[in-house]
Amino acid sequence: MTLRPDRREELAAALAEVERRVEEACRAAGRSRAEVTLIAVTKTYPASDVRLLAGLGVSHVGENRDQEAADKAAACADLDLTWHFIGQLQTNKVRSVVAYAHMVHSVDRPRLVEALGREAVRAGREVDCLIQVSLDEGAGRGGARPEEAPALGALVAKTEGLRLRGVMAVAPLGEDPAPAFARLRAVAGRLREEHPGADVISAGMSGDIPQAIANGATHLRVGTALLGRRKPFVR
Q1: Of 86, 145, 149, 164, which has the fewest Cβ atoms less than 10 A away?
Q2: Helical H runs in the chain?
Q3: CA distance 82 to 202
Q4: What is d(CA 230, CA 235) in angstroms, rounded to the nearest whole number?
Q5: CB atoms near residue 140 (< 10 Å)
Q6: Domain architecture of the chain: domains with CATH
Q7: pLDDT above 60 for 3
Q8: Residues in CB range of 193: below 8 A, 6 or more apart
Q9: What is the rounded average pLDDT of the residues 125-151?
Q10: Which cofactor does the UniProt annotation name (predicted)?
Q11: Strand-strand pairing, 37-41 and 82-85
């Protein structure tokens, strides 16, 4: 695709505004900015945007769909990036995802744990895993029920090739995200009692950064506020 000459400036301005919001939320919560990792969610946007963001200091990139993520990870293989797979993951895509993803945020069932472990061992890799927790009864979003998280976490922790790092959730649509993120924080605390290294809380997107940070989020998944409204992906 043809890169607009002002695209770097657009991204730089958006990144500066997101950073301002994150820093403000950290101050309000009495937390250090260093405690929060910003993941740029680049779904539907080209590898050229990933390169521009990397040049602006972004080192964590998130993707929802394997085919798009695999292509971008290959196109940006020369960059020092950490790739996060954050979408619902089918077992038939696990081999591909394990080849590039450093962290999978959407682990929500035993069969997926088994597939991830098998492919990680085959690839000679160790993949960080987050238990995706469902904070509502919303259809189609994936996620284990809060009461299922401890057993699923224990399964990840004992599976060769995987490392349990914590939890992830999406705030329920149409609700105040703060109470939902408080529930996630409670689930994370219970998991951390058994697995002290599981200290990641992946929560918060473009519209709920303050609420996520106030409830202990360590990783923010920000797309629209950085890259603009979604459009069809052009390679």
Answers
A1: 145
A2: 7-29, 47-55, 66-75, 94-100, 110-123, 149-158, 177-194, 209-214, 224-227
A3: 15
A4: 14
A5: 5
A6: 7-226 (3.20.20.10)
A7: no
A8: none
A9: 89
A10: pyridoxal 5'-phosphate
A11: unpaired
Q: Hey, is 105 helix, strand or coil?
A: strand
How does 145-175 read in b/e, with b if 16+ C-beta sit within 10 Å? Answer: ebebbbebbebbbebebbbbbbbbbbbbeee
Rounded Cα distance, 73 and 133, in Å: 26
How distant, in Å, are the alpha carbons of 42, 44, 56, 74 from that of 82? 13, 18, 15, 13
Of 49, 23, 1, 37, nearest to 202 by C-alpha is 37
Residue 54 near residue 83 (C-beta atoms within 8 A): no
Decide if 211 contacts 181 (C-beta within 8 A).
yes
pLDDT of residue 78: 98
Would you state the structure tokens that stand for residue 16, as one six-digit string?
């500066």
The reported pLDDT for the residue numbered 229 is 83
Range in 37-41, 57-61, 134-138 the model is least confident about: 134-138
Distance CA 100, CA 28 (A): 36
| 66 within 8 A of 85, measured Cβ to Cβ | yes
The tokens for 92 are 């038939």
- Helix, strand, coil: what percent of the chain each, to 5? 45, 15, 35
Task: In whole angstroms, give the CA distance from residue 115 to residue 134.
Answer: 21
How many residues does this entry show for the chain? 235
